[in-house]
C-alpha cells in the first residue's frame, strides 16, 4: 500500500510541476504542489470572480468590520467558505 501511495504522490507531483498555475502558486512561501493543486481545484477559474476582493471574500480572507454610529472596529478574519 505504501508503494502505491508513493507512486501516486510522484505522479501528482509531476502533473503539478507541468502546470503553469501550480508553478506560479508554488512561488508563494509555504505553498507546496499539494496546496497549489487544492487552491486550483477550489477556485476552478479565477475569471468567475469580478475582482480580487471577491476572491478574497470567497476564501474567507477579509477581516470583519463592525460599525455603530461613528465607531468602527476591525476584528479577526471571518471564516469564509472552507477550502478543500
From TrEMBL:
UniProt domain Transposase IS116/IS110/IS902 C-terminal: residue ranges: 23-82
Q: Which GO terms describe its biological process?
A: DNA transposition
Region (Disordered) residue spans: 64-84
Q: Which InterPro entries match?
A: Transpos_IS110, Transposase_20
What is the top-level taxon of the source organism?
Archaea
Molecular function (GO) terms for this protein are: DNA binding; transposase activity
What is this protein's record name? Answer: Transposase IS116/IS110/IS902 C-terminal domain-containing protein
Source organism (scientific name):
candidate division MSBL1 archaeon SCGC-AAA259E17
Amino acid at each position: 500500500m505504501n508503494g502505491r501511495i508513493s507512486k501516486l504522490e510522484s505522479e501528482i507531483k509531476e502533473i503539478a510541476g507541468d502546470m503553469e498555475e501550480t508553478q506560479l502558486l508554488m512561488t508563494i512561501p509555504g505553498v507546496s504542489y499539494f496546496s497549489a493543486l487544492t487552491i486550483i481545484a477550489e477556485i476552478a477559474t479565477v475569471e468567475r470572480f469580478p475582482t480580487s476582493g471577491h476572491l478574497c471574500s470567497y476564501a474567507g480572507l477579509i477581516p470583519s468590520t463592525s460599525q455603530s454610529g461613528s465607531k468602527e472596529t476591525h476584528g479577526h478574519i471571518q471564516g469564509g467558505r472552507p477550502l478543500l
